[in-house]
């Protein structure tokens, strides 16, 4: 799988607002997110303005500003609605198996239209601090925290040694993944998830030998 980092037009997925309940406020927010996402897919980040988002969503610009302070905040919330269900951290097997499954899901996402749009936003964040801050605060921080919590659970259950620093392990695993796709631009497939975890996963905790009473 290869990824193009410069902006290209993306086909948008189904509108998020189509699946929303009938609450007027919720549907209005969903329409605004859909509008921002569609404009980004068509024109890239420079084409997204609060006025254009309001026009396409059919609402007043003040309605948009009451919900989001910037266009970056709208875009990242729209992104989160599309990404989060696909990359939720599983809690079904061992912590190692769950990490592999989650990284496989991220790799699969990278090959999708939504995933390529996500990577394009990451590339934009290099030159646009506002989008970088919104990405970190409104999406990436939650994903990172979920991974750290899963590793801490593994430590509590004796699957990882207490000396392991969950934050460093998460940064090592996902840092390598994002480096491969964004910098090295090397091929990615599901098998890479297992190779990555096998290379960086710490040794299991040592079991103290049982002491027999004399």
List keywords for this structure.
single chain; 214 residues; Arc Repressor Mutant, subunit A; Tetracycline Repressor, domain 2; 2 domains; elongated
Notes on the structure:
By secondary structure, this protein is an all-alpha fold. The chain has two domains: 16-68, Orthogonal Bundle (Arc Repressor Mutant, subunit A), CATH 1.10.10; 87-200, Tetracycline Repressor, domain 2. Helices cover 63% and strands 0% of the residues. The chain is built from nine helices and no strands. The protein has helices spanning 24-43, 50-57, 61-67, 71-83, 95-110, 113-125, 129-156, 166-184, 190-200. Helix 2 (50-57) crosses helix 3 and helix 4 (71-83) runs parallel beside helix 7 (129-156). The longest helix has 28 residues, at 129-156. The radius of gyration is 20 Å and the shape is elongated. The N and C termini lie far apart (62 Å). 26% of the residues are buried.
Radius of gyration of CA atoms, rounded to a whole number: 20 Å
Count of runs of 4 or more consecutive helical residues: 9
CATH architecture of the largest domain: Orthogonal Bundle
Largest sheet: none
Distance between the amino and carboxyl termini: 62 Å
How many distinct beta strands?
0
H and E order: HHHHHHHHH
* Percentage of residues assigned to helices: 55-70%
Name the CATH superfamily classification of the largest domain. Tetracycline Repressor, domain 2
CATH class group of the largest domain: Mainly Alpha
Share in β-strands: under 5%
Number of domains: 2
